[in-house]
Task: inverse folding
């Protein structure tokens, strides 16, 4: 009896020595995803997480009906079917916490790469940590132009940044006076010339505020008031009264979720009546914005990179949107579509590098080209700049401007207003009464 | 002109609301000479009790006030009996650090239970409604109701302090605790009562404020700071002082509006470029500083 027990243990020992531990378990590629899962932008965080998870699910399984190369294989084909494993961390919108989490992911979890972080201020500190440790980071949804102006070697950004988006806004304003906007007769220039902006005062909002001033000068508009506020502010009434005092034709905002809702509520309570209301994405396109404010958002414009109408232009977006809707309950948003694209970019980079060595990933990312027909977002593709003053920036991105309108079914949704050639509805102008 | 008028009205309204936030702080200080750093956290708990009750039961947020008052009162008494009573035996510094610890504990407890998400009320009889009374003055219904109830609360507390036996006992305890004890006043109970009233009024303030401000576990800090400024300005321990100072502080937070009035009346471009709204609370703390230097007792202070 004793003898056979020893024999069994001996066999176990030999098997254990011969077969390396990793061979039995499936190989995994660990990507640390740092998002705001709680705090003021938690609603956007949920979207970001769901979008990233869906992309990982498609990459890890064969889904033949989706017309994407990552859906054709199970895992990373060039790495023996290694699966993508996302490790989520919550930065709460706090840059210091984000940097700590990045260190933990790199040193304790030994991640092969990083994805995130939504808030530009957090992306800034997290990317600095990644750069320091030489770990590749792909950013899908932070839009402060400064992020790709630092000459980082381990940082790539797929989304277009705020210079693009703010220019889109001014093209729309110009288009209004030229009669290019679908359903709106040319607006005399002197009726739409005074602007006022209110932006949250971290990295992202303060740059948007500067960009608005810069483009206003270039396009011949007059910024009567531009103010910055804290995104955590529990009350914005004095800010709103200050905007009102400037008596602008158009009001422009850069806000995260809870402050965007508070801002519109306060505008409504103060019965403010500008001709045009525009938000720089983020809070203005979260599902919470719509559910909390209901009918009062009809007529508000927001820039975005994804609208459900994109589905009519791109079949692949429709398929992914159906899967997303079945999983989460709402359509893809700019946040989820971009976190999806972030993970997808990781998959393409890994297919190209064939290894998780940082140097190989770096080489692959710099030589990457994903054609537009692979993507859910309406971009010409993904290709990173490797020289010039925007190293790591995707040069093939583009933006959209949508407007909340009530559909025939009574549901409020976003319609494409800009670019003019893909407009999906007549623009409501001027902004209706709250 | 309408910019100026609307700023003044807004300043007075918010002043009355800030005054009720500071009321509890001044009562506790007046009776016991103890500075409650956890005051803002009591307010935060009042905000959560109003918000969660309204959301869970579907009743109007304004009807949750009695519940918030009860929660705040109970919490105040609990804190006194379970914690502050023991701190009083220690030196002044222990009391300061003790209530500071209480603040950290309550804040982190709220973080654990409610998470760090901002929550706000989107529905209610008054939520989102406002009255246009002409001349560019628009009064949000929620703020008007809160200001009105604040005046009522002040009146009630003033009556309690000046027209009842209990109030007399409270004031006696405040003037000379030892003497009051010799006269047969149960000062322990008076202290507990002061904490109960303090907790109750600030929780009511919280349930009123949640009608128009969002709440998260960190919201208390801003209010603690402002309440300190109000109490210092009005005089530690003075109930009418808190009301008057609340109005003054409310007007100070409206300095940006007054600035805008001059900017657009005289069309001064350089004035439009000054980010006044970013500094709206700075003036409050500046006033606090000036008062501390020039008149440490405050405007209505009666305790040395």
Result:
């Amino acid at each position: 009896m004793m003898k056979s027990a020893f024999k069994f243990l001996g066999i176990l020992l030999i098997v254990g020595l011969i077969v390396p531990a990793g061979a039995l378990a499936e190989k995994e590629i660990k990507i640390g995803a740092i998002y705001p899962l709680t705090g003021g932008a938690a609603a956007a965080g949920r979207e970001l997480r769901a979008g990233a998870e869906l992309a990982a699910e498609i990459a890890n399984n064969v889904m033949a009906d989706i017309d994407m190369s990552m859906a054709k294989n199970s895992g990373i084909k060039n790495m023996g079917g290694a699966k993508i494993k996302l490790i989520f961390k919550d930065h709460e919108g706090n840059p210091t916490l984000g940097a700590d989490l990045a260190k933990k992911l790199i040193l304790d979890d030994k991640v092969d790469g990083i994805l995130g972080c939504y808030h530009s201020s957090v992306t800034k500190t997290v990317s600095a940590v990644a750069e320091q440790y030489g770990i590749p980071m792909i950013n899908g949804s932070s839009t402060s132009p400064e992020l790709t102006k630092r000459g980082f070697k381990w940082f790539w950004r797929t989304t277009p940044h705020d210079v693009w988006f703010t220019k889109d806004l001014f093209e729309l304003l110009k288009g209004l006076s030229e009669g290019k906007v679908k359903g709106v007769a040319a607006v005399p220039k002197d009726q739409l010339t005074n602007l006022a902006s209110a932006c949250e005062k971290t990295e992202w909002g303060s740059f948007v505020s500067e960009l608005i001033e810069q483009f206003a000068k270039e396009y011949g508009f007059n910024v009567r008031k531009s103010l910055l506020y804290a995104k955590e502010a529990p009350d914005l009434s004095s800010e709103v009264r200050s905007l009102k005092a400037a008596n602008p034709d158009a009001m422009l905002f850069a806000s995260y979720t809870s402050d965007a809702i508070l801002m519109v509520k306060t505008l409504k309570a103060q019965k403010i009546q500008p001709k045009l209301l525009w938000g720089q994405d983020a809070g203005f396109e979260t599902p919470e914005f719509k559910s909390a404010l209901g009918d009062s958002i009809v007529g508000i414009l927001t820039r975005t990179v994804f609208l459900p109408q994109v589905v009519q232009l791109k079949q692949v977006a429709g398929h992914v949107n159906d899967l997303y809707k079945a999983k989460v309950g709402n359509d893809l948003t700019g946040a989820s579509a971009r976190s999806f694209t972030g993970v997808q970019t990781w998959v393409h980079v890994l297919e190209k590098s064939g290894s998780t060595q940082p140097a190989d990933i770096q080489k692959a990312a710099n030589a990457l080209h994903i054609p537009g027909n692979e993507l859910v977002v309406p971009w010409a593709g993904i290709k990173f700049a490797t020289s010039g003053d925007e190293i790591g920036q995707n040069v093939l991105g583009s933006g959209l401007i949508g407007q909340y309108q009530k559909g025939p079914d009574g549901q409020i949704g976003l319609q494409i207003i800009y670019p003019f050639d893909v407009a999906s509805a007549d623009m409501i102008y001027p902004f209706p009464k709250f | 002109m309408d910019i100026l008028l609307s700023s003044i009205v807004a300043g007075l309204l918010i002043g009355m609301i800030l005054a009720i936030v500071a009321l509890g702080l001044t009562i506790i200080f007046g009776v016991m000479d103890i500075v409650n750093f956890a005051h803002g956290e009591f307010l935060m708990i009042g905000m959560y009790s109003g918000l969660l009750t309204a959301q869970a039961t579907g009743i109007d947020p304004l009807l949750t006030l009695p519940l918030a008052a009860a929660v705040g009162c109970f919490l105040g008494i609990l804190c006194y009996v379970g914690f502050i009573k023991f701190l009083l035996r220690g030196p002044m510094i222990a009391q300061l650090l003790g209530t500071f610890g209480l603040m950290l504990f309550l804040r982190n407890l709220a973080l654990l239970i409610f998470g760090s998400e901002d929550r706000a009320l989107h529905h209610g009889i008054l939520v989102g409604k406002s009255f246009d009374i002409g001349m560019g003055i628009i009064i949000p219904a929620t703020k008007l109701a809160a200001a009105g109830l604040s005046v009522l609360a002040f009146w009630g507390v003033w009556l309690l302090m000046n027209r009842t036996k209990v109030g007399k006992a409270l004031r006696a305890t405040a003037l000379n605790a030892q003497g009051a004890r010799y006269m047969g006043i149960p000062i322990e109970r008076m202290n507990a009562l002061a904490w109960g009233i303090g907790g109750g009024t600030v929780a009511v303030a919280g349930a009123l404020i949640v009608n128009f401000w969002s709440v998260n576990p960190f919201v208390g800090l801003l209010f603690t700071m402002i309440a300190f400024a109000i109490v210092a300005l009005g005089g530690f321990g003075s109930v009418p002082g808190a009301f008057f100072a609340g109005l003054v502080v409310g007007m100070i937070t409206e300095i940006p509006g007054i600035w805008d009035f001059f900017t657009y009346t005289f069309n001064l471009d350089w004035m439009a470029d000054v980010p006044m709204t970013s500094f709206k609370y700075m003036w409050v703390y500046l006033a606090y500083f000036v008062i501390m230097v020039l008149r440490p007792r405050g405007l209505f202070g009666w305790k040395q």
User: Anything to note?
Assistant: The radius of gyration of chain A is 24 Å.
